[in-house]
Amino acid sequence: MNVVQCSADSGCSVVWPIVFGAVFFFIVLTSFAYTTLLERRFIAFFQQRIGPNRVGPLGFLQPLADGIKLIFKEDLMPVGASRAVFTLAPLIKTLPVLLLFGVIPIGPEIVVPWFAPSLGDVWFRVPLGLADPNVGLLWLLALTSIGTYGIVLAGWSSNNKYAMLGALRASAQMISYELSFGLSLAVPIMLAGSMSLGDMIRGQVMVWDWYVFQNPLAALILIIAVFAETSRAPFDLPEAEQELTQGYQTEYSGMKFAMFMMAEYLAMIAVSALVVATFFGGYNDGFGLVQNAPILGPLVMIGKILLMLILMVWVRATLPRIRYDRLMQFGWKVMLPAALLAVVWTAVSVVIGDLSGSPIVYGIAGGIFFVVVVGGAYLMFGRGGEDEQAEELDPMITGERKGIGYAALNVLGGILAAPFILYNSLLKMLDRLASVNPEAAQEMAIEPVDQDNKPARSSGAD
């Protein structure tokens, strides 16, 4: 039996992506529907209820019933709404989420039989992924930013103050946490030496190779950031029902509302796959079983994604919604400095490990940074015995000497003051030169222009 790469045959390289893409997106869209059932059943379990169990055996047909109900719901258009933008906003929100799955491998290459008379009796080695570009993470970051436009346009076009306020909340929240999100993803890029998700997964074969153990701070920041990026509890401020009815979705009904819900749950699956691929080994089981039986890779990947989804539901059932100003403070004053520290942690450890050529030295450097991070977190957040002052208007950045804002303001002030300091130093230098040698200073001086727009130059005869 001959094994040939799928890309070596023109028929396989065309047919396989189409077949795999159709099957893959059917599974993704089906899993979106049953993610809603998963959330409802687990929320009921945490609240000691039963949950949906009437439609079909054990309630497994409940997503189908919900879809049929939304199809037959009346599609309303608010008075004064921008019809075209109001209709396109759900598409702008949903399509980028679907494109996220295109660069996330769900398994290693497998060998399948293929009918190719020109090559004889051969089997083809095919990838379990639509694409694996060398800028995969950059593609993901770009697409997650595009989804914000759909939310903002939905709120603006609805002609509703609650929808607009929810859209503004969502855009501010996503932009604030996008920095921490991107910085945390810089850690696996440095560890793998590539922006390809396939290269990152192939570098995490065994459990001790998983990047979560090489930089747990970055993994924690990424998990918190994806909660905020997907507007999941406790960061579900854009859809706060008690405050904003339904946020930017207030005026939507029928299938347009269903598309927003689909985008939310598809985003949950996509970011779960991203977290698994970048820090938790991807489709690798951690014990070498997938290397011997590659067909187990997709099952391992699905199992890890399912655990991440359960974590999201668990957090929603456990933690209350935080205040909006606290949300923004946490993003700028805690998450962003911690993400910068995580990047420095990995950068220094990688450089030290490369210079020494020993993984033991790399481990020691990483351990020292871990102790520094834990100690700094204790000093920053463990100030026990201090009564918290109740402030109605709690600013984002304060001028207190003990806060991060004080250091940030000093750095920013130094950057802004640098040109003025240089200009002042130049003037003082010219003054000193004039006091020592008046003739040289007069030659260096710039004389004013006369009324005839001609420069008054000093001649040698003068």
Summarize the structure in words:
- By secondary structure, the protein is mainly alpha-helical.
- Among the domains are: 74-108 and 134-381, no CATH class; 404-439.
- It contains 16 helices and three strands.
- The protein has helices spanning 10-46, 62-71, 83-100, 136-157, 161-192, 197-202, 211-214, 216-229, 241-244, 254-279, 289-292, 297-318, 324-356, 359-381, 404-436, 438-444, and strands spanning 2-5, 107-113, 122-128.
- Strands 1-3-2 form a three-stranded mixed β-sheet.
- Strand 2 (107-113) and strand 3 form a beta hairpin.
- The longest helix is centred in the N-terminal third of the chain and has 37 residues, at 10-46.
- It is globular.
- The N and C termini lie far apart (100 Å).
SSE layout and pairing:
Elements: E1 2-5, H1 10-46, H2 62-71, H3 83-100, E2 107-113, E3 122-128, H4 136-157, H5 161-192, H6 197-202, H7 211-214, H8 216-229, H9 241-244, H10 254-279, H11 289-292, H12 297-318, H13 324-356, H14 359-381, H15 404-436, H16 438-444
Parallel strand pairs: 1-3
Antiparallel strand pairs: 2-3
Helix pairs in contact: 1-10, 1-12, 2-10, 3-4, 3-10, 4-5, 5-8, 5-13, 8-10, 8-13, 10-12, 13-14, 15-16
